[in-house]
Amino acid sequence: MKNLVLFLLAALPMAADPITSTERDALIRSLKSTTEKFHKAVAGLSEAQYNFKASPEKWSIAECAEHIAVSEDALRSLVSDRVMKIPATPGKIEERKQKDAAVIHGIIDRSQKFKAPESLTPTRRFATLDAAVAHFNTSRKTTTEYAASTQDDLRAHSAPHPALKELDGYQWLLLLSGHTERHTLQILEVKAESGFPQP
Question: For the whole model, what pTM was predicted?
Fold first, then answer.
């Protein structure tokens, strides 16, 4: 009887991983890489440096860090609460996959400017740099754990992006990671301004 049960279990089809191990590893590497870049960019800043604005219309590092931190929550929630609830279109998976590299390159291209949604516009939510970084770290940990373990069918569900058009759930997570790098580059631009306070 035991052998019969084992035979029947072995005969059952195994559930396919919704993303390949290569895709999952690439996403996790991207999340870790952009985390490290952000940490390096804001390390050791004085309060004057953190709050420096090159001009009234430009963001300070404080504003960039806040935007990075709150966007992490919003973009991850967009995947789980919106993208995954849109009816699946499995017939378009292979077509959409061709855009993976373009998603990363498109979001970090600082020559393309986008206006942040009002909900993600900096409003001094965090009193200090440490508070902004702590919020980001907690949220990024949640994102990385989701990326490492989710069985959501990320490739079958998609939603439009205003500039990059139709993106599947996996690509929205790549975009989330790239978004951190995009605004980390903005932080480096602030640090390169001629009036940036010196240590």
Answer: 0.89
Question: How many CB atoms neighbour CB 150 within 10 A?
Answer: 18
Residue 6 has pLDDT above 70, yes or no: no
**Could you give the CA distance from residue 104 to residue 172 in angstroms, rounded to a whole number?**
10
Rounded Cα distance, 96 and 153, in Å: 14
Helix 61-81 vs helix 129-149: crossing angle, to nearest 10: 30
What pLDDT digit, counting tens, does each position of 161-191 carry?
A: 988 999 999 999 999 999 999 999 999 999 9
CA-nearest of 110, 127, 112, 116 to 184 is 110
Distance (Å, whole) CA 191 – CA 61: 8
Distance of alpha carbon 99 from alpha carbon 81, whole angstroms: 23
Q: How many residues are recorded in the chain?
A: 199
Instruction: Give the integer Cα–Cα distance in Å for 68 and 197.
Output: 22
Q: What is the pLDDT of residues 99-132, one digit of tens each?
A: 999 998 999 999 888 888 999 999 999 999 999 9
Note the pLDDT of residue 115. Answer: 86
- Helix (H) or strand (E) holding 132, with range, is helix 129-149
118 burial (CB, 10 Å; 0-12 / 13-18 / 19+) is exposed
